[in-house]
Specification:
Chains A, B, C, D: This is TetR/AcrR family transcriptional regulator. With about 190 residues, chain A is mostly helical. Chain A is built from 10 helices and no strands. The longest helix of chain A is centred in the middle third of the chain and has 23 residues.
DNA sequence: GATGAATGAGAATTCATTCAT
DNA sequence: CATGAATGAATTCTCATTCAT
């Protein structure tokens, strides 16, 4: 933690990986791509990560941490409805990026599920934390079917992100976002 | 004097491609994989398809045709509600396959969007036809917000397929399926 | 020689080969290219020529025959000078084709010399006949150094064809043609 | 602590390429051939040259540089006649190599002209520099028709190289060489 | 620790040639 | 004889990973 070296080459790599994996996709991304984005020489990557998988692993961790931060922020809000709608707004906040590259979490999950290494577990873990948190909110609203609703909400977001990306149409995301907000409001007791 | 060459090697290849692309994903699938699945020597594939892209293209076409057939079958049903619920049931009919490999259409769309060739347009076309048909059903139910509802329904399915796949949990799909059926029923005038 | 079949599929193949080999070059030309140009199904080529080499061989033969015909025509002319200048004019008659594809004989010789099969001998034979004929003309002019002059003239043509092709400049060929004609005139006793 | 990696693997590759392309011809030469000649593993070639074309490009550059050096040496000579004759002698200095493989510049030009990539421009540039230099010498001799003479001389060399190669007869080159030297002498004012 | 270079295991693609009717 | 289809060997190219300093 001295600054004898630029702070956190390891972190820089993980961060760059999150970015590049989102934009290019897991399979299209080469180690060289990530190294370049992080401004780290290729050969050096292996000092920090023994394999490409481990780097991806780290990227997933980093991405998870970003989401945890987001959620931690939401905890400040007074009611579960507020929190859920704020989450929605966060998810939907950059429709053009989604239109271009899809949801970072979802596309990652989708791609990693095709692999036999353990990476799919890692991203599943991240998604589960999100899902659990959403469930908690619905439970706090007194809903017995909280899990079901959580799945429904999360699925709606993931699905519309996919459609938004496929059709390259940010509008889809915005419209569906509003629909879901109204739906949340309608659930209030 | 046997029935000679098994009919439609081209079709066999496209069919095998649909299958293998779904199971392995676009980027992980090698021509050799498809060739093997279709029981065709690799070199011979190029007699039918000039490039790997063209074979993928054909697979998309084939997949689209399968969906068109599915939909054509639904047209027999008397009410739009019936038709939509039947579509849902079709989509959700093999939760274990979805848990293992995701929705074939959705995963394809997700992966192809990372590519710069025109393949993303092809799969987008397939999805648009589905979406339009769903919209038509909602319109037939007298809903002014038919497009919005169509996007919502399609997104819900795509999203839950993604979650089902990520969590490897067929239950998710089944439960959400029922929830969506009830929702459709609730829309009846 | 009935016309139950279109006359001379074999000849058509050889002729097409001459053409295509000139335009595309030996190594870039595929059997399929030649077959297509001759309007003969690929599989059928092998009925007439057991290997690609044999087809090229036939093309060389055909090309040689065309040159022999050309030369036979020149024999009508009264003086060796006339004959040589007519040969020159024949060679230089389509400078734009030469600029695009080079001299058919020369490029063939150049490419075939890189191969270990006997094809180089075949094209060398064709060139030798030409060279001998030129020598004969110089001898008829009473020149003791007829061989040397023949080599010089033939070389000048081949060389300028190469430059014309390399620089894609038909003018080169025309100008050098005139220069060589003047040179021939200057040799008259 | 040895002199470590032999210096200039990139140069070694380009040099080997010049050699092998001359001997085997462009189309018959495989990357593996060049790699072997340079004693470099195939995969490693791509560290230095992104494509085969780029390696060929580099070979052309290297070849051009060799010619430039040759010419620079000739500049020392006092008269243009001396310089031209020295060039001739350089060109004709290894008739047996020419008999076996042709003129490296000429065969390269001939083969590359069949390709659609820009490689033909590259070799044409090399030849143009040579041609220009020859023209300059003739101009220095006070000849108004310097360009024409330059084309004639260059063509004679290229042509006789082609014949020498085709007939596998080094004598041709030697004899024509002398003839051209006498011709240059005869041009002196 | 840092780094440019090395290496080899695939992957797509092309094509002469052969085969089955 | 004719012909669409089949086959496999060769070739270019990519990249994760390793090595030598």
């Amino acid at each position: 933690m001295t600054d004898s070296k630029r702070p956190g080459k390891r972190e820089r790599l993980a961060g760059a990986a999150v970015q590049v994996l989102h934009e290019r996709g897991v399979e299209k991304t080469t180690l060289a791509d990530i190294a370049r984005a992080a401004d780290v020489p290729v050969g050096n990557v292996y000092y920090y990560f023994k394999t490409k998988d481990q780097l991806i692993q780290a990227a997933i961790g980093e991405h998870g941490r970003e989401l945890d931060t987001l959620i931690a922020g939401l905890e400040q809000l007074p009611t579960p409805q507020e929190r859920l709608k704020a989450l929605l707004r966060g998810w939907m906040s950059r429709p053009d990026v989604t239109a271009r590259y899809g949801c970072p979490t979802g596309t990652l999950a989708s791609e990693l599920d095709k692999r036999d290494d353990g990476l799919d577990k890692a991203i599943a873990g991240v998604m589960r934390r999100l899902l659990d948190w959403v469930e908690t909110q619905f439970a706090a609203m007194g809903r017995a079917d909280a899990r079901e609703l959580a799945v429904g909400l999360f699925a709606s977001y993931q699905g519309v992100a996919l459609l938004t990306n496929t059709f390259r149409d940010p509008e889809l995301m915005t419209v569906e976002g509003h629909r879901l907000e109204r739906w949340i409001d309608s659930l209030a007791v």
